[in-house]
Amino acid sequence: MRWGLIGASTIAAEHMIGAIRASGGEIATVLSSSPDRAVSYAAKHDIPKGVTDLDAAMDGVDAVYISTTNEKHLPQAMAAIAAGKHVLCEKPLAMSVADAVTMVKAAQAANVTFGTNHHLRNAGSHLAIRELIATGRIGTVLSVRVFHAVHLPPHLQGWRIDNPDAGGGVIPDITVHDADTVRFHLGEDPVDVVAMKTASGMGQGVEDSAMSIWSMPSGAMVHTHESFTHRFAGSGIEVHGTEGSIIARGVMTQAPVGDVTLRFEGGEQAVEYATHGLYDRAVDLFSKACAGEGRPAADGVDGVKSLAVAAAVAKAAETGTRTAVDYGGV
């Protein structure tokens, strides 16, 4: 499959270019708004063409990977869908739930594959956690605690910490990941949320820290903490049930290969899991879906729903009120 990269991004350089090539894919073009960056990025990563025109970036390709700033996702995805290209888009899909729904429905109407690049559900650690829950090892889930407060490295700061018009802030950047991860593990969608946010030292015009509590249809409660400013906190997820608990540390990063422990009445045990490349798995499943085999790891509806939870958290934090999650009819 021939790919066009829509965005000369860090995530493409560090993870997705290698994953696409590992799947047998060929990267034909890369798009940047800067002519110099388009050319230099293409040369550095052995991509034949670096361009600034979206039509040129889609010329002769089967699929596009979109990793531009968030406000550009909608027009770029819609153009790709109109051109008959399969689309793998970074999260959040769009600046609003309504726009994300528009993208997903357009892809459905055009009969092209649309995926959201939620990487964590592809990790061996999270696949193992999900299996423990699904097979009843911890009984009925009572609560989930996600701690995803990290320190955003300088090379990733930029628009994420100072540009609300581009979709900056910790809620669209990290809360949306946590929403997808919780949905993946529990197999249900949050009903409503309460939340608080703040700018605690890094954010300039956007929030850099947030905490929220979500209610689930099953009655389980979810607590999440996201931040760009916590240098030493570490990350992880805990899932507590009537018959046991899953305690996972170091599993909410782009290399989620920390420790997963199952605790139960008889003691505790370390959980073994596969350490495959999570981006490799994501691209492989997406490529197979494009060929009519299965579905992406996270499809467009998954992207809409994770965005909807993040949007509800943002609204709840802004208004100080309990806020229902609006999934836009999907």
Automatic annotation (TrEMBL):
Transmembrane segments: none
Annotated signal peptide: none
Statement: the UniProt record of this protein carries the keyword Oxidoreductase: yes
SUPFAM superfamilies tied to this protein: Glyceraldehyde-3-phosphate dehydrogenase-like, C-terminal domain (SSF55347), NAD(P)-binding Rossmann-fold domains (SSF51735)
Keyword Oxidoreductase on entry: yes
Annotated GFO/IDH/MocA-like oxidoreductase domain residues: 127-246
InterPro entries: Gfo/Idh/MocA-like_OxRdtase_N, Gfo/Idh/MocA_oxidrdct_glycsds, GFO_IDH_MocA-like_dom, NAD(P)-bd_dom_sf
One Pfam match: GFO_IDH_MocA
GO molecular function: nucleotide binding; oxidoreductase activity
Gfo/Idh/MocA-like oxidoreductase N-terminal domain location: 1-118
Keywords for the protein's UniProt record, in alphabetical order: Oxidoreductase
Listed PANTHER family: BCDNA.GH03377 (PTHR43818:SF11)
Name listed for the protein in its UniProt record: Gfo/Idh/MocA family oxidoreductase
Upper classification of the organism: Bacteria, Pseudomonadati, Pseudomonadota, Alphaproteobacteria, Rhodobacterales
